[in-house]
Batch of 2 targets.
Target 1
Amino acid sequence: MSDKPSRAGRLRRAPENFIDGTLAADIARDGLSPTRRSFLQRSFLAAGAALAGGAAFAADAPKIAGDGDPMILEPRPWATSLGQPVAARPYGVPSKFEANLQRRQSPGLTQTAQASVAFTPLQGLFGIITPSGLHFERHHQGWQEIDPTQHRLMVHGLVREAKVYTMDDIMRLPSVSRMHFIECGANTGMEWGNAAVPTVQYTHGMLSCCEFTGVPLSVLLDDVGADTKRGRFVLAEGGDGSGMTRTISMEAALSDVLVAWGMNGEMLRPENGYPLRLVVPGVQGVSWVKWLRRIKVGDAPWNTKDETSHYVDLMPDGQHRQYTSIQECKSVITSPSGGQALLDRGYFNVTGLAWSGRGRIKRVDVSTDGGKSWRQARLESPVLPKCLTRFNFDWNWDGSPALLQSRAVDETGFVQPRYRQLRDVRGTKSIYHNNAIQTWQVATNGEVTNVHVD
Amino acid sequence: MSDKPSRAGRLRRAPENFIDGTLAADIARDGLSPTRRSFLQRSFLAAGAALAGGAAFAADAPKIAGDGDPMILEPRPWATSLGQPVAARPYGVPSKFEANLQRRQSPGLTQTAQASVAFTPLQGLFGIITPSGLHFERHHQGWQEIDPTQHRLMVHGLVREAKVYTMDDIMRLPSVSRMHFIECGANTGMEWGNAAVPTVQYTHGMLSCCEFTGVPLSVLLDDVGADTKRGRFVLAEGGDGSGMTRTISMEAALSDVLVAWGMNGEMLRPENGYPLRLVVPGVQGVSWVKWLRRIKVGDAPWNTKDETSHYVDLMPDGQHRQYTSIQECKSVITSPSGGQALLDRGYFNVTGLAWSGRGRIKRVDVSTDGGKSWRQARLESPVLPKCLTRFNFDWNWDGSPALLQSRAVDETGFVQPRYRQLRDVRGTKSIYHNNAIQTWQVATNGEVTNVHVD
């Protein structure tokens, strides 16, 4: 493309963009299948051959017409035909060429697909907003399509007057809109022991970020006359078959928790709790109770099943930590990342996401040598509290093996830990709350893989 | 719902939410059809009847079970059955109950649907992010689904070395992500003369707001060695059949203009320029050239068809203003708005959008008496430059006729004008750049209609 070596790099952004065929079929939990590996290898060799010939850009680049003044590109079919009408799709969908960018279930991770996870394809996304159609899913008894005119929310317990609200009742209340990330407490959970999964979709894809609209929970608590002195906790219960129940402190309930109906400008999607879910900024996703049907005010935590046998952190001494629900400062490079390949040397825009359940991201550093040296990344605006922050980083790859890492720091001064630091405190038996620094290894042939660096 | 009069209001947020049947069929350009009018009337009467009986909430509210302690809501089908598995929809879509929230073509507005407009349903949206599937459309020869591996961008003219870029070339360049509104210069164009269309979808729906990701145009201009002294302008050309061409000042080109591939986290949608479009923050949508295939650097404006016979402002003296492309400070109340109905008296969260092509919104005031008195609205965060800002406003409707207005002020001190002020300067013959204050009239029966207040 250019005479500048600094612009000479090319990235195979696939597996998910621009490639026909499915990824799920040929990525197994233990890495790339021979088919996929062979495909990437061929891509790499083809690119190498083109570059060896000195071509500045791809061999199939269009010829330039015109008399010396290269004014006109060779006409393409789409420039010489009548297109589709407006509102051909009253609700639009992505291009057919993007069909491989999907949320995907990790094969074999769970026994049933109703109590399972579908991961967001972070490797193919940009900015901080997660398209609602690619928001990660975590259900405990499958998702339901609830008729909003039939849905009810009860607020009761230590209140002056228990009430049952319809959606019409709730949606007329004073509303606020805020952008927040949501991360499952188990995100990156398969990585405690070793580098188990091949792509960032599976290592970090239980992570999404949206603009939520709803009524502050404090408004509802005020409306029922909640006793906020004796009532130190609220219980939130979901309307699906699992009846998910989670305890939330009254302090959080009165600060930034929302009872939300809006997500990215429209009503919540059924998979994400339509028509009503709790939004608990900074806290693990399980507490963002979906299909929300009940809020109870009480004077003690409820210790429900999903607060005692699940979503606890098993410590090295055999005890477990309960109610460790804040998602601590964390980051990950989303591209280049596992399963992608650098097709030649030169410039790459290294990009990723950083977030903290404690507030704003203050800084992100990137290392290309496994943490020996660090340089500061650019943060895209806006940088919002308890929200994803997109970072970008200029890198010239010289063809040597490299170890790509990112390290986030939040406004409280918390520095994202290395694996060794995390394990020194928490051991290796946990599933939840792994916020260690992720490493992507770049081999001399350009292939990127998931590896562990202590 | 409540013993507090301040919470007693109910809004029929439909026509678009929660109602089965189509809106397009029964809203004509001149107002609500008898069918729709009758439906709203029935809704209003039904609600009135329920309230007259003193019911705190809807008559079909579920019974509360349990022994005095109202712990359990009557079981619903979705709480007693197995739901859908994760990744049932690898790319999710809205609930079937939201099917009426669509972008819609205005019947009869244009002669063909390929050179036409589909409007964003602002009346049913929340926050500032427009769902990509509901982004407004304005095409000049229909939209095309372009194969990204075949797409090319040429940059030439007053440059050291003309270049042709593939998508791979472009997507490896340093990228930025920014949230911006895009508004067609003709938005609200039908309102110059009188209140012509019934809903905010048609008065203001050529307006959307997304997070865009791309490479700054300045990086590409640097890459080709553009002469930015002689080259005071760039021409942007689209790859569809209309070959849309627009002149942009070099000053804008070097500041915040992007060559973008990302929209709301994923690749652009075909209707919005997939795989590449120009993002020209603060400037009317026609300059955000879609399916971008060519950038030329030159020393004078090009005065193309769409800069001379269209997208010009006809002044009272018969002359026209050209290149008036900045979208000035503007706002609109999106709910309650035309076609909706207040179903009873009491509290309403009045909500809307404000924006300015000059920078950030500083303040929004709301009037309920046609501009005689004003109170300040709450602005939701984030408040970003050249981006939509969501505002909310508490209002207790006492049942009297009301005239709802919003008035935005931007950080330059520009105050959104009344119609009289706008017409004093610009007359009534224009189509483009109508940023006057919008008025929604609330009748004593709760119906909301589009009216003009000078």
Target 2
Amino acid sequence: MEPIEALDARYARVRDATMALCATLTPEDTVAQSMPDASPAKWHLAHTTWFFEKFVLCRDPGYAPMHADWHYLFNSYYQSAGPMHARPQRGLITRPSLLEVVDFRRHVDACMRERLQAGVDEDTAAIVVIGLHHEQQHQELLLTDIKHLFACNPLLPAYAELPEPPRGRARPQRFLRGREGLVETGAPAHGFAYDNERPRHRELLHPHAIAQRPVSNAEFIEFIRDGGYRTPTLWMSEGWDTVQREGWNRPLYWSEDLDSAFTLGGLRALDPHAPVAHVSYFEADAFARWAGARLPTEAEWEVLAADRDPGQGNLRDRGLLQPCAAPDDADEDAPLQLFGDVWEWTSSPYVSYPGFRPLPGTLGEYNGKFMCGQWVLRGGSCVTPGDHIRASYRNFFYPASRWQFSGIRLGRDA
Amino acid sequence: MEPIEALDARYARVRDATMALCATLTPEDTVAQSMPDASPAKWHLAHTTWFFEKFVLCRDPGYAPMHADWHYLFNSYYQSAGPMHARPQRGLITRPSLLEVVDFRRHVDACMRERLQAGVDEDTAAIVVIGLHHEQQHQELLLTDIKHLFACNPLLPAYAELPEPPRGRARPQRFLRGREGLVETGAPAHGFAYDNERPRHRELLHPHAIAQRPVSNAEFIEFIRDGGYRTPTLWMSEGWDTVQREGWNRPLYWSEDLDSAFTLGGLRALDPHAPVAHVSYFEADAFARWAGARLPTEAEWEVLAADRDPGQGNLRDRGLLQPCAAPDDADEDAPLQLFGDVWEWTSSPYVSYPGFRPLPGTLGEYNGKFMCGQWVLRGGSCVTPGDHIRASYRNFFYPASRWQFSGIRLGRDA
Amino acid sequence: MEPIEALDARYARVRDATMALCATLTPEDTVAQSMPDASPAKWHLAHTTWFFEKFVLCRDPGYAPMHADWHYLFNSYYQSAGPMHARPQRGLITRPSLLEVVDFRRHVDACMRERLQAGVDEDTAAIVVIGLHHEQQHQELLLTDIKHLFACNPLLPAYAELPEPPRGRARPQRFLRGREGLVETGAPAHGFAYDNERPRHRELLHPHAIAQRPVSNAEFIEFIRDGGYRTPTLWMSEGWDTVQREGWNRPLYWSEDLDSAFTLGGLRALDPHAPVAHVSYFEADAFARWAGARLPTEAEWEVLAADRDPGQGNLRDRGLLQPCAAPDDADEDAPLQLFGDVWEWTSSPYVSYPGFRPLPGTLGEYNGKFMCGQWVLRGGSCVTPGDHIRASYRNFFYPASRWQFSGIRLGRDA
Amino acid sequence: MEPIEALDARYARVRDATMALCATLTPEDTVAQSMPDASPAKWHLAHTTWFFEKFVLCRDPGYAPMHADWHYLFNSYYQSAGPMHARPQRGLITRPSLLEVVDFRRHVDACMRERLQAGVDEDTAAIVVIGLHHEQQHQELLLTDIKHLFACNPLLPAYAELPEPPRGRARPQRFLRGREGLVETGAPAHGFAYDNERPRHRELLHPHAIAQRPVSNAEFIEFIRDGGYRTPTLWMSEGWDTVQREGWNRPLYWSEDLDSAFTLGGLRALDPHAPVAHVSYFEADAFARWAGARLPTEAEWEVLAADRDPGQGNLRDRGLLQPCAAPDDADEDAPLQLFGDVWEWTSSPYVSYPGFRPLPGTLGEYNGKFMCGQWVLRGGSCVTPGDHIRASYRNFFYPASRWQFSGIRLGRDA
Ligand SMILES: [Fe+3]
Ligand SMILES: [Fe+3]
Ligand SMILES: [Fe+3]
Ligand SMILES: [Fe+3]
């Protein structure tokens, strides 16, 4: 566990970052929920604060919750922490107002600071660290949820004035041979990781290769022009049903003419060299089939990424908030853009590792109960906080989800 | 038509009243939509303004709309005025912000003032008058929609600090014999009325009587305790389906113990003497059957109300925003509370009068196209603006609607 | 009440007619339910029999129901007669088999014959008469439900080999001036009529005219070609929603090229002179608006039809089971095709007459509880039994219903 | 590939078995579809025949399909074989009648016999073999679909008069240590297997143990009585949502008092010693968590079953059509009931094996496109044909499916 000093400072840094993300939002922007999967920004602000009040401050029996009746509103899904408001109704919670929620944050932050400065035991420190990672996850969601909300507005407002991303060239695609045989994956026993990354365990890798870089917009346009969205045999059965039912014919946020896309900076020309984003697992899988390839497994991905530095990626800290092509000066044989830009769909259903043990108590509900029907994504995206990603990190979404910055890296048998 | 002077002042008064209704709301409160039937307060503010910009200011070809791209957002249902945003998505329009909408109001109000002070032709004046009545309708909806929204919030916030309504006693119920034979109903050709109140025409009234006052909460509790909600033979077939599907067992906003109800002033004890409110046509009709009575027809109601003064009712101007029992000092034989307190469901489906002509042009869509599947209510409610009700006024809602201040007055054959 | 002898014979005739309608059906055809509004033929056979067992035979406390456990299955909607199977599940009741149901019919018929021959009291006789009218209503439904079912089958099987209907010419349309002022409508106190046709009462008719004949297919095609289905201002708001949601662009059962239509005799060329059928109220109303007319009220219709002979119409007994143009030899000023061919939508919502009293007991549920949200149709159709129609007969369906032989007769103010 | 002679005989045997399963059904029983997941028996009869006509007979360009227009009706999901009728509408296809479908079977069988007796090439023979396995799969579905249909009928008809199953005693539960390390699973390259069982490949097994026998009804009742269905922390998040939404509180087909269950032989007392059946993955997984165990992976299961004889199981050929306890005389350390009784949910999502290649052509749609969102079950059930199961056989269903004979075998880490 990290030293208490650091924890205090880190707490402040992470919490402040969340507030900073809201700087360009009006109070109105923070209250609306554009679909059941997304949450209002105000809800994110309150829920992440509830997490600290409920799981840290309330450990002290002397602590009186600031607003006990808010716990019902801002508990997300922790059944063992008490009943909760129905998720699809989050957009109707106009009260507490944004100001009241900000006050709540201040109050909890003050209590937390005091607590952290007084020194906390190891268990508590561990929960604080989880709470900060939790907060960072919600930071990413806050951005993707706002993007979705703004895309529902015919005025297409920009979240912020963003710099134009550098317009590099996507290299010609290559496949890099992966390691095979018995390997180890998962997070080591020490250091922070979510319970779903553990235990570190042996995996058997079959001979395979992985693409050097993610699929680009230009390549995805080829798939579209080749009739990809009209060819049922390229698709999972359920994917094809979704294509038909939803009328999908391009990635989410793209204009009909395939020339531009809605971004956090507003509507912008589509960069053919940038990695394609906002595709579902169904689209990633169909694209791979069309390309004569497949998606990599999560173990193949992790082994490839294991000794790369996540910090080099186009993550949120770079401030682009949009995927872009990798710079051209990289090592010819190195995998590119494993971290940042887009989360990469893998061919692995999200299930537990052998020997998986959920966290004890309520936090055991954090991850384990979602191990059904979702697929693993790896590597973080352009809106992932820079210190929130690692090779063993497992993100997961339903196969029809498209509102995350989710993209495609190909793999194949070798 | 009214003199231009008066129109100017009246315009200012009505428009200001709308803003005044929002004084206690946060920006967040104004953006959320709690169900497809309801609209956000911000949307009401913008839509009523769009009405004047579109139907009055834009008559001048030299007028440039302040925000041409907002017309799509704030057109409600006028197909001939252009395409419009889907009604159930109104809660996602966080931009324009409340401040921008208020600016829009100011801008349009300034232009309107100028226009009205310069003098307008009769046609224009007529549209302005319609626009003001339209605005007043939305004032009522703004309140009922906010009430619904706040009732969806587990914190049950109050819209405003409201005075306790006077706690009068409901008189013992009596039935007053109505006029019979050929009568005239509908608005006269001159003076303001909606197109659906015209033409004035002959109706044949059969022998009947009408209750002196609306059904009280105490009487409705009797119905509940007698198993009213569990007795299918009291209900229209579709009403019974609704009872089953929705699990109805009391009026909207009542607490389960039948002791209190959510009001615009927050949760309050239920006054047994006050008229029951927030019941659907289905409930009104079932109650009437249980009571061995029926609902009055709209013609019966109108003839009874024709020479009464609407201004005496518990309308919005009284500031209670809640129904209450009539004062005890009234004439023994006079009908009570015809105006104000609660809209009274009639047994009349909402259809056109013989010889009905919709307004010319786009405003022809105001009323006529809704004459299907809805039922007429009469008399206004405790949130109806004082000068917005008259004996010939026809309100209409679907038979399952309960979020309006809708109540019951009994009738019977005689 | 009719003499017992006649009742006996009439019972046999009506009951046999139902069986005769099933002669061309396979057992499989009799079990399927193509939508919640329709019922399987086998269900019709059993339900009409249940009606006699439950409401006539079971009046004798000594009578033991043949299959007491079938009552749950074949009660349609009589809440006071006990619980019932959910309507949309009728197609899953493969047992009892068709043969068992036919046996049930035989058993009940034998008991009924014995009972009728022994002589029944007046009350019982009245219920038997209702039961026979009820059976005839179901005969019509059986045919419209089978038509709907077969139209859902890509093989488009014919119900029967039917004669080609005579191909007359539709006369040029004319409007006939109607009676005005105070009139009487509704069924007289004596003779059979449903409770909803009573009491006979005074109505006030405003000056009006009614079209001599129903709208023809050719005229409806004009409406289509003129963009009728693409012009929102022609439609009720709810009708337009339905058009959009369902993708309506022509009457039910018509081929896309407007050249042919599915009939009980299979797919056939569309006769431009025949009355248009299988249109909803929404379409009838939109057509009327397009034509600068309106639909007649039910009172206007009834007064016009009051002294015409229903038996002249193209009713089921003629065996065409399809609407066709009227013969050319009719009186120039006489209204044509009031009875038979197509049920004619009126502008009257289906509500009770002044002074309406439902039948006592369970049969009070027959009609009254459906007086909400439906519209009155008049005159019977080409599948209505010849002795089952009269001027005062009120049929009723929801405004979006199209699977009945429902058509359009225009009216207008005069 | 098997010799042509045998194929001829085998074809006859398998095809006749399908017909034999329908002996107790009325024509009405064969037409109804009780839910989108299930199909009518008549559809099964026709679809399996279509399979041979389309994929075998039509390979001969000289062959004229008996009913070319039936291909649309009886293609299930092979997009590359042409368009198809919507799955949820299968119950409306009353024509062709059962007799016509039986005729179709006879015709195709005669052609097939001729073809097989004349001798077919290896490719054709391979497709015939697939067609026979396909037919056997549909035999199982025919029984589970009929069971579901009959359970929807309040009369609860029995599919057949079935013998009472032997009432053995379930042994005290034990866990058997499994093999660990590198193993091989999947079907060998030769002999029949579906494409999804291949290629045979290496898997890494972690230390584990597997229960000797499936979970019994008595054990599942314990789970219920202990509040299993009311304890959210036992469930996958989506499973808990399903429990709430569907009101699940016991396995499908059980009576509310947990004393009896609907079987193909009608309603019968529940045998506490028999394996629990008709539970979903969600229930299997929750039960395992409650029991402090987990479900085995499919590889763990397959390795355990690899050298067992499927023929000893309670499969369809035994004629019980109901799970029952294993006989008591078995080897103390041998796993019991791996084959037959109930399909056993595993913890393995249904995905492709490393190096998976779908069959070429249209039959490539047989399995691969369903590898999303489903879970693997192993071992066959009491309605699986005796020669249709093997250790490598992978069945798969959605996690909420309960209408198959699906049960639970526990596993755990060791
Ligand atoms: Fe969270
Ligand atoms: Fe409006
Ligand atoms: Fe009936
Ligand atoms: Fe199949």
